[in-house]
Design goal:
The chain is an alpha/beta fold. It has a domain of 90 residues: Beta Polymerase, domain 2 (2-Layer Sandwich). It has three helices and six strands, in the order E-H-E-E-E-E-H-E-H. Strands 1-4-3-2 form a four-stranded mixed sheet, with helices on one face. The protein is elongated, with a radius of gyration of 20 Å. It starts with a strand and ends in a 29-residue tail after the last helix.
Length: 149
């Protein structure tokens, strides 16, 4: 059984600590959703040792939140991944190295990140049966008009 629980960001670490004391000893994953600007939703899935119970803690933040490494040491990789892909800061984290050994210019999982390949690709091209006729120009999915300027 999986339960969803919303938590105030100020209670994030305290709630995770309480859940661990109640038997949710496994940290399965931590991820983020970018809601625009500096607004994010952080989600954390916890489980009992036998996986019979699952809990997803969810909180809304503005760019930073307390690290849970002191509660669940294995969350370190997930926090580093979210930091590298979204730009979220985990306060008190002991390891701030990138999760992936790739060079990134920006945070690719943010909604405002320009997808260069899509923005540079000519869409949609010629149509059949007249190969010389062109369709009305349109932008590919996920490309904002201001990226083409």
């Amino acid at each position: 059984m999986t339960t969803l629980q919303n938590v105030e960001s100020s209670q994030w670490q305290a709630q995770a600590t309480e859940m661990k004391q109640k038997g949710l000893v496994r940290c399965e994953w931590l991820t983020a959703t970018h809601n625009g600007g500096d607004a994010f939703e952080i989600s954390l899935m916890l489980s009992t040792e036998d996986l019979s119970e699952n809990l997803i803690l969810v909180t809304d933040i503005e760019a930073s939140i307390e690290s849970l490494v002191s509660v669940y040491p294995n969350v370190s990789f997930h926090e580093r991944e979210v930091a590298q892909m979204f730009g979220v800061e985990f306060i008190g984290s002991d390891d701030t190295s990138p999760a992936f050994e790739i060079e990134l210019s920006g945070f690719p999982l943010r909604r405002d990140f320009a997808l260069a390949t899509r923005a540079d690709t000519e869409w949609p091209g010629a149509v059949e049966p007249d190969e010389n006729a062109k369709r009305r120009p349109s932008l590919p999915p996920g490309v904002l008009p201001e990226w083409n300027s």
